[in-house]
Amino acid sequence: MTNSPHPDHDRGLEFDLGTMFTRRRTLGLMLGAGAVAGLAACTPAGNGAPASAAATSTAAPTTATAGTPEATAQVTRALAECTAATADTPEETGGPYPADGSNGPDVLTASGVVRQDITASFGSSTTKAEGVPLTVTLTLLDNAQGCKPLAGAAVYAWHATKDGKYSLYDQGLENENFLRGVQEADANGQLTFTTIFPGAYNGRWPHIHFEVFESMSNATSAGQILRTSQIAMTEASCKEVYASTGYESSQQNFPNTPLAADMVFGDDGGVHQLASTSGAVETGYTAALNVII
């Protein structure tokens, strides 16, 4: 049976502007104007070149915890790639299910939203979203300041379940808020989320949404957004994960929307927002992306 979220789901930036034109979104888009060109470097775990849609490895993942050699290496690569970049991370749609106050629920002002592990709901429910483990590391860099790390900035991240559904919006998940959370960047501009590999649904390439805020206080008060964008998952990792138990609907939906045809990533083949990914179904995956603002 094909998984079919709301027909308006992620129809693109133009559609969102027409249906969710709020003060917060207006501010976020104004700040991001002119930044829709492709990002020239966005794979901190790579070798300095944009990853291909099939790029992945089967090595056991390592979490780039602040202060570890892995984190230091990621920062070094991120700075080098930011210096060589010709454009910032593109501004993208937040989709119709952001839960940031611009379209329905506002999870950002809820107690408990600041957390690294976003697999379970918080508050009145502790239901956990099941799926293949995924650790996501973002490195935030200020291009206008010579690629200076955005220490103290905050990121709100959210994505679909293994079945392509969104908490707080889809039927049966209205009282759940899992797969959503906020983290603060460290001195190197890095932050990490522990989650599950997102599922695929018709009309979109598998992805993770995120909003960048200048500070944690701005994020948790649903304040001004510096950048709204999305992370694209690699083709090879999607094929591996979707062949595993529990992702049956994603395996069916995944071939229906190629990366080049995706309404968000399709303008440049997705390479500028493609996460550098490693791991295996048995051990979990890691995904890393430079976010240049």
UniProtKB/TrEMBL annotation:
InterPro entries: Intradiol_dOase_C (IPR000627), Intradiol_dOase_core (IPR015889), TAT_signal (IPR006311)
Domain Intradiol ring-cleavage dioxygenases: from-to ranges: 128-204
Protein keywords: Dioxygenase, Oxidoreductase
CDD domains tied to this protein: intradiol_dioxygenase_like
One Pfam family matching this protein: Dioxygenase_C
Origin: domain of life: Bacteria
GO molecular function: ferric iron binding; oxidoreductase activity, acting on single donors with incorporation of molecular oxygen, incorporation of two atoms of oxygen
TM annotation in the entry: none
Gene3D superfamilies recorded: Aromatic compound dioxygenase
SUPFAM superfamilies for this protein: Aromatic compound dioxygenase
PANTHER family, per the entry: INTRADIOL RING-CLEAVAGE DIOXYGENASES DOMAIN-CONTAINING PROTEIN-RELATED, PTHR34315
Name of protein: Protocatechuate 3,4-dioxygenase beta subunit
Lineage, broadest ranks: Bacteria, Bacillati, Actinomycetota, Actinomycetes, Micrococcales
